[in-house]
Amino acid sequence: MKGAKSKADSRKADSRLAVKKQTKKERNAAKDPNKPKRAPSAFFVFMEDFRQQYKEKHPGNKSVAVVGKAGGDKWKSLTDEEKAPYIAKAGKRKEEYERKMEAYNKKLAGGDDESDKSKSEVEEGSEEEEDDD
């Protein structure tokens, strides 16, 4: 078997080609705590209300899985008209999240540290001064 690689040689090649995986700790360290939390879907908005109702009806239940399963079954049984308020709430939360993300991204890009409200107040004040002339 001339020219054949030994097992040791093939292991060395594999180790050179292996990509270093990040540990869980390294991945979590990369997250920015100031980043806005993602907006919930309509189902999760529904589940917020459903959990409260379920706890009132079943105070002895401690199982998260049972509540989740019951909530999923209830969500599937709802009509589109019954889901509409949850979809609307989720849409509002998504818009709010997008505004927060836009401000967050501007801040990361090195934009001004002033809030949008203070900028508009400054702009209004400068317009009033120009009108006085």
Q: What's this entry about, in short?
A:
The chain is an all-alpha fold and 133 residues long.
Descriptive account of the structure:
With 133 residues, the protein is mostly helical. 70% of the residues lie in helices and 0% in strands. The protein has six helices and no strands. The chain has helices spanning 7-17, 24-29, 42-57, 64-77, 80-108, 116-132. Helix 3 crosses helix 4 (64-77) and helix 3 (42-57) packs across helix 5 (80-108). The longest helix has 29 residues, at 80-108. It is extended and about 75 Å long. It starts with 6 loop residues before the first helix and ends with a helix. The relative contact order is 0.08. Mean pLDDT is 79; it is low at 118-123.
Topology:
Elements: H1 7-17, H2 24-29, H3 42-57, H4 64-77, H5 80-108, H6 116-132
Helix pairs in contact: 3-4, 3-5
Number of helices: 6
Strand content: under 5%
Structural class, by secondary structure, is mainly alpha
What would you call the quaternary organization? single chain
Q: From the alpha-carbon coordinates, what is the Rg to the nearest angstrom?
A: 27 Å
Main beta sheet strand tally, sense and closure: none
> What number is the mean pLDDT?
79
Backbone shape = extended
Ranges where pLDDT stays below 50 over 5 or more residues in a row are 118-123
Query: How many DSSP E strands?
Result: 0
Q: What is the end-to-end distance? A: 96 Å
Key descriptive features of the protein:
133 residues; mainly alpha; 70% helix; 6 helices
